[in-house]
UniProtKB/TrEMBL annotation:
Residues 37-130 form the Transposase InsH N-terminal domain. Residues 249-272 have a biased composition (Basic and acidic residues). One of its GO terms (biological process) is DNA transposition. GO terms for molecular function: DNA binding; transposase activity. Residues 300-476 form the Transposase IS4-like domain. Residues 245-303 are annotated as: Disordered. Pfam families: DDE_Tnp_1, DUF772. This is IS1182 family transposase.
Length: 493
C-alpha cells in the first residue's frame, strides 16, 4: 500500500575482512649463519653480568684452587664456572643442584654464566660439599667489598636470630625416654634372633639332610642373619642418639656448675681453677638427660625449635648482625641452641673482628636479655664504647613503650631496671625503634628472594657454611643494587 525505498543488504557482524598485511620475517627452522654470542642475550645491567665480573676479576678463589693437588684424572669443571652458578643460584633462590641443572638448559642467565656448558647436579652438589668452607669464606670477601664501597658505617647495628628448617623431618626424632625403652626392646629381639640362629646352625651341623630340606640345596639359611643385621644397625643408631643426648646433658651440667663455682669464688674474692674443674666434672657425672630430650636420626645436630609462627620445627638457630647504612650483614653464624641469649657476646665480637670496628650502638631484642648479657653490655660499653639497647620484655601487638618515670634512677636499681629505664627515654625509644627496620627486612629478603627458609646441607658445619653463603650472596646483591657492575671497577680480590 505504501512505497518503500529498497534497503541495502546488511553485512553480518564479525571479524573485519583480512588485509594484505606485511609481517616481520619469522622462520623457526632458520639455521644461523654465524655462531650465536651468549654475550648478546643479556642486558648490560643484568645481575648475571655482575656475578661473572665478580668471580672473574674480584673474588679470591685461591682457597678453592688450592684443593686441586692431583694432576691425574679426568679434567674437572673450571671452579670459576661452578662458583658463578652457585653465587647466582643462591642470590636468585635457585639453590638445589637439580634446579641449577634444569636452569642450565632453559635459563639464558645460567647458560651465559656457564658459557654453554651443562654440569650435572651430582657435579654441582659434590663441588658445593667439597669446597663448602671456601664458599662460606666468600662472606668475609663480600663484607670487605661492601666496606671498600662505603656501604658499612658501623654506627648502629642490629643483632637477631631466625630459625632455619633443617634438612630433616621432626618425625625422625625420638625422645630420650623412648630411646631407652626402644633400645631395650631391640636388644631383647636381637638376643632372641641370635638364639634362633644358633639353634638353626646346630641343627644344620647335626643333620645335613634336614638343612637341605629347610634351607634349600644351595645351603642358604633363613632370613635371620639379614634380620639380625637390620636390627643391629637400628640399635647402633639408637645407641648413638642416646650417647649424644647424654653427652649434651653432661656438657650443659658441667658448664652450669663451673659458672656457679666461678661466681661463688668472685663473691669470696678467691681464684681456684681446680675447684671450678672439679665442680664441673662432678656435675657432669651426676647429670641425667630429661626424658623429653630428643635426637634426630636424619640430622643429629639439628634440634626441635619454635619458630616465629609458634610451630615446632626441626631447625637450626641462625644469627646475624646487620649494619644500618645499607643492611649489610657483618656477622653470620649458626647454633644448635634455640635460645638467642648465648649469642650476644660472640656475635658482636665476630662483627668487630670481621670489620675491624666496634659499632657505636647495638640493638637487640628481649630474646638476648639475661643478667649475664646485661653485665656484658655494661663491660662492652666501658671497653669499646658500644652502647647496647636491649629489650627487657616483649610488648604485645600495638603496645607502646611507657614513658620513663621522672627523677633519677635509684642507686640500688638492678641492671635490668636500668636498661628498662634507658629504653623508655626519648633517645632510647628512638634508637630501639630502628631495630626491626634494620634486621628483619634482611631475614625477609633471604627467606623470600633467596629461598633460604630451609637448609639443604646437614650437620652443624653444613648448616653454618650454607648460612654464611646465603649471607654472602645477600651482601653481593646489596652491592649490585648500590654500585652495579661499574662499581666493581678498581676493586681487586
Amino acid at each position: 500500500m505504501f512505497e518503500v525505498e529498497p534497503v541495502g543488504k546488511k553485512r553480518p557482524q564479525g571479524r573485519p575482512t583480512a588485509v594484505n598485511k606485511t609481517f616481520r620475517a619469522f622462520d623457526p627452522r632458520q639455521v644461523l649463519l654465524l655462531p650465536p654470542s651468549l654475550d648478546d642475550w643479556l642486558p648490560e645491567d643484568h645481575l648475571a653480568r655482575f656475578v661473572a665480573d665478580l668471580v672473574d676479576e674480584v673474588l679470591d678463589l685461591g682457597p678453592v684452587l688450592a684443593d686441586y693437588t692431583e694432576k691425574r684424572g679426568y679434567p674437572p669443571y673450571d671452579p670459576r664456572l661452578m662458583v658463578r652458578l652457585l653465587i647466582y643460584g643462591y642470590t636468585t633462590g635457585v639453590r638445589s643442584s637439580r634446579a641449577i641443572e634444569r636452569r642450565l638448559a632453559d635459563d639464558v642467565a645460567f647458560r651465559f654464566l656457564a658459557a654453554g656448558q651443562e654440569p650435572d647436579f651430582r657435579s654441582i652438589a659434590r663441588f658445593r660439599r667439597r669446597h663448602l668452607d671456601a664458599l662460606a669464606g666468600l662472606f668475609a670477601q663480600s663484607l670487605h667489598l661492601a666496606t671498600k664501597l662505603g656501604m658499612v658505617k658501623m654506627g648502629r647495628v642490629a643483632l637477631d636470630g631466625t630459625k632455619l628448617e633443617a634438612s630433616a623431618s621432626k618425625h625422625k626424632a625420638m625422645s630420650y625416654g623412648r630411646l631407652v625403652d626402644k633400645e631395650e626392646r631391640i636388644e631383647a629381639e636381637i638376643a632372641q634372633l641370635e638364639a634362633q640362629a644358633q639353634a638353626l646352625l646346630a641343627d644344620a651341623e647335626a643333620i645335613d639332610e634336614a638343612e637341605d630340606h629347610a634351607f634349600g640345596v644351595d645351603g642358604k639359611e633363613t632370613d635371620l642373619p639379614a634380620e639380625l643385621d637390620r636390627r643391629e644397625k637400628r640399635l647402633a643408631k639408637l645407641q648413638a642418639a642416646r650417647t649424644q643426648i647424654e653427652a649434651e646433658a653432661a656438657d650443659k651440667a658441667r658448664k652450669h656448675a663451673e659458672d656457679k663455682e666461678r661466681r661463688r669464688q668472685e663473691r669470696a674474692d678467691i681464684h681456684d681453677g681446680q675447684a671450678v674443674t672439679s665442680a664441673g666434672e662432678k656435675a657432669a657425672k651426676a647429670a641425667r638427660p630429661k626424658p623429653k630430650a630428643q635426637a634426630n636420626f636424619t640430622d643429629p645436630d639439628s634440634r626441635i625449635m619454635k619458630n616465629s609462627d609458634g610451630a615446632y620445627i626441626q631447625a637450626y638457630n641462625a644469627q646475624a648482625v646487620v649494619d644500618e647504612e645499607h643492611q649489610v650483614i657483618t656477622a653470620a653464624d649458626v647454633t644448635t641452641n634455640p635460645s638467642d641469649a648465648l649469642n650476644y657476646t660472640t656475635m658482636l665480637d665476630q662483627s668487630a673482628a670481621n670489620t675491624g670496628v666496634h659499632p657505636k650502638q647495638a640493638l637487640v631484642d628481649a630474646g638476648y636479655c639475661s643478667e649475664t648479657n646485661l653485665e656484658a653490655a655494661r663491660e662492652r660499653h666501658l671497653a669499646c664504647g658500644t652502647d647496647t639497647f636491649m629489650a627487657t620484655g616483649r610488648l604485645t601487638h600495638d603496645e607502646q613503650v611507657p614513658p620513663a618515670p621522672r627523677g633519677r634512677i635509684p642507686k640500688d636499681a638492678t641492671l635490668k631496671e636500668r636498661m628498662a629505664h634507658k629504653l623508655r627515654t626519648k633517645p632510647g625509644k628512638a634508637a630501639y625503634s630502628r631495630r626491626k627496620a634494620i634486621v628483619e627486612p634482611v631475614f625477609g629478603q633471604i627467606m623470600t628472594c633467596q629461598d633460604g627458609r630451609q637448609l639443604l646441607l646437614r650437620g652443624e658445619d653444613g648448616a653454618r657454611g650454607e648460612w654464611r653463603l646465603l649471607a654472602a650472596c645477600h651482601n653481593l646483591r646489596k652491592i649490585f643494587r648500590h654500585a652495579g657492575t661499574a662499581g666493581l671497577a678498581g676493586l681487586t680480590g
